[in-house]
Specification:
single chain; two-stranded antiparallel ribbon; 4 helices
């Protein structure tokens, strides 16, 4: 019996918001970058805003979408 596949995290940017907060691995997959890049964005405060729940880093899908929208607007204005 085939196991169901996980939904594509990039769907967050294209369609409806998931019903959970995103992990750094989700962000790395969404933007097709290494996981270490996501952590560097966090350290340099250049990527989407994240927050901690205890020791776990999470991202609100709404904030990620706003980040992408801001990048698009900056790119078109340049």
């Amino acid at each position: 019996m085939a196991q169901p596949t996980a939904p594509d995290p990039r769907a967050t940017l294209r369609g409806g918001l998931p019903d959970r907060y995103l992990t750094p691995a989700d962000i790395a997959e969404m933007f097709e970058v290494p996981l270490e890049t996501v952590y560097q964005w966090r350290k340099k405060r250049t990527g989407p805003p994240g927050f901690r729940i205890g020791k776990h880093l999470r991202y609100d899908p709404t904030d990620v979408r706003a980040y992408v929208t801001a990048l698009k607007n900056t790119a078109t204005a340049a």
